[in-house]
Design goal:
By secondary structure, this protein is α/β, with parallel strands linked by helices. Helices cover 41% and strands 21% of the residues.
């Protein structure tokens, strides 16, 4: 049976070897690189199933690598797990806003990392085909298959996470969802993210939708909904 391919981007040699050993032992095909520049080249060449990406890299840091991967149509669909030595909300939110799918704080247990990777792969592999149909709500058009959003005919430059959040709300216009429901739907159950980061992403999404930003309504005491 073909196994998923993992690209590890880590400049600490011992940690990179630890990741390679544990992932290979689990049956994954692993490629490890030690710089952001090498990560971009390898990701575009081999199109891995997941990128495990350290934030603190020399020259080109992990946040910039994530941004470049998510804005390149060839690699935008690849899930990214961030490795960070920082636990502050600002660092976590930055990664999520750029489209990262998960993060884990150093030091971490290899078992925890493997469990989180498996969760990412399960979500990636079970995306239902019926969710690929286009959605049109007045001047807003969402093309899931092309990962494209048109606002009054012009494309909106959304991150991977912003796109999934908008698509989730648009599938049931008029329905109010809690921040917890939004996190579960966009990131998967038990995703370790604060409700504050949902508010930050909604604020950024409204700004990018321009005149259609008010389509995303705040439901006081609940969360958010897309105007029906």
């Amino acid at each position: 049976m073909a196994r998923e391919r993992i690209l590890v981007v880590e400049d600490e040699e011992n940690l990179a070897e630890l990741l390679r050993y544990n992932l290979t032992k689990e049956g994954y095909q692993v490629t490890a690189v030690d710089s952001g520049e090498a990560a971009l080249v390898e990701a575009r060449k081999s199109l891995p199933d997941v990128v495990v990406l350290d934030i603190l890299l020399p020259t080109l840091d992990g946040l910039e690598v994530c941004r470049l991967l998510k804005t390149d149509p060839k690699t935008a669909h690849i899930p990214v797990m961030m490795l960070t030595a920082k636990a502050e909300d600002a660092d976590v939110v930055s990664g999520l806003e750029l489209g990262a799918d998960d993060y884990i704080t150093k030091p971490f247990s290899p078992r925890v990392l493997l469990a989180r990777l498996k969760a990412i792969l399960r979500r990636r592999n079970k995306e239902p085909t019926e969710e690929q149909h286009s959605i049109r709500i007045r001047e807003l058009i969402i093309h899931p298959g092309r990962h494209e959003v048109l606002v009054e005919g012009s494309p909106a430059d959304l991150t991977f996470t912003e796109f999934r959040l908008l698509h989730f709300l648009a599938r049931r216009p008029g329905w109010a969802f809690t921040r917890g429901q939004i996190v579960d739907a966009v990131k998967g159950e038990d995703y370790p993210v604060t409700e504050r980061s949902v508010d930050v992403q909604v604020a950024g999404l409204r700004k990018k939708l321009g005149t259609l930003g008010p389509y995303i309504e705040t439901v006081r005491g609940v969360g958010y909904r897309l105007k029906e």
